[in-house]
Design goal:
It is a single chain. With about 300 residues, the chain is an alpha+beta fold. The chain folds into two domains: about 110 residues, 2-Layer Sandwich (Dihydrodipicolinate Reductase, domain 2), CATH 3.30.360; about 130 residues, no CATH class. Helix content is about 40%, strand content about 20%. A five-stranded mixed β-sheet has the order 2-1-3-8-9. It has a four-stranded mixed β-sheet with strand order 4-7-5-6. Helix 1 crosses helix 4, helix 2 packs antiparallel against helix 3 and helix 6 packs parallel to helix 8. The protein is globular. It binds iron/sulfur cluster.
Length: about 300
Amino acid sequence: MSFQLDTNRLRDAVVELIRMASTQLPEDVIQAMATGRDREDEGSPAKSVLNFMLRNAEEAKKNSTPICQDTGTNIHYITIPVGVSMRAVQQTIIEATRIATEKAYLRPNAVDSVTGKNTGDNTGEMAPYFHFEEWDEPAIKIQLALKGGGSENVSAQYKLPDNRLNAGRNLEGVYKCIIDTVNSAQGLGCAPGVIGIGIGGDRASGMLIAKKQLFRLMTDTNSDEKLAELETRLYDDLNTLGIGPMGFGGKTTVLGVKVGAAHRLPASFFVSIAYMCWADRRHTMTFTETEVTYD
Ligand code: SF4
C-alpha cells in the first residue's frame, strides 16, 4: 500500500525537528565534549572554554533558544518511501523552515549571492539544501544538520597528489590533508571540531559524502577496517596538535573524525573535508503515517 503523506503533519513535525536541532546538542556530542573537558588540565583555558560550551548547551536546551547566534545552513539528507512525492516533501520542509525562522529557532541566513539581499526566511536557491534517497521502509527519515558558516569557511578540498604536502594517492596522503586542514584552521571554525571526510568521488559527491559522515555517532566504528584505523589515528594525532578549544591550546582539538569513501575516476583523487564546529547540531526524525520519533 502506498504511503499517505499528510503535509500539515509533516510540516509541524519538521518545525519541531528544526527547533531541536537549533537548541539541543545531541547527547553523544555532549559526552564527547565532557570527555574532552575531563582530560584538560585543572585551571587551563581549555577546561574553562569547554565548561562554558557545555553550560551554554545546557541553557539553550532549558530555554529552547539557539545554541549559537549563527544557526547555520540547513542541510537535509532525506529518505522517502517509494511513491512519495519528493517535491511535496521539499515544499513542506521549505514551509516549515519559514515558520521556524518566524519563531526565531533560525536566524535569517539566506543571502542572494548576486544582489546581497537576505530573503529573511532562510529560503532561496539551494536554500535549504536537500539530498534525497529512496528506501523500502514505510517512513520518511529526515536527517538535519545546521552547519555554521565559520566551520564551513575552514572546510577544504584537496586534489592528490599534493606536492606541497608531499601527499600521494593513498590513505597516507589523505591523512596528511586532514592534518593540514585542522592545522591551518587553528581555532577558526570554532574548535573542537567534528571532521567529516569524503575520499574520492568528484568534487561535488566527495563533499556530499564528507557531510554525510557528520550524521554518524561520535561513538560508532567504521565498518571498513582500514577507514576505522584512519579515524582512530587521526582522532589521536589531531588532539596532540595543541590547538585546543577555540584555539586556546589544550588536548581537545577535535571531538570526532568520520571517514567515508566513493569510487573515483582514474584521473582524479579528491579528499573533501567538512569541518563542523563544536555546535554540532544534528537531529534525525522518522515520520510514519501514525507517529514521529526524534533522535
Ligand atoms: S562556527 Fe559554529 S560555533 Fe562558531 S559561530 Fe559559527 S555556528 Fe557558532
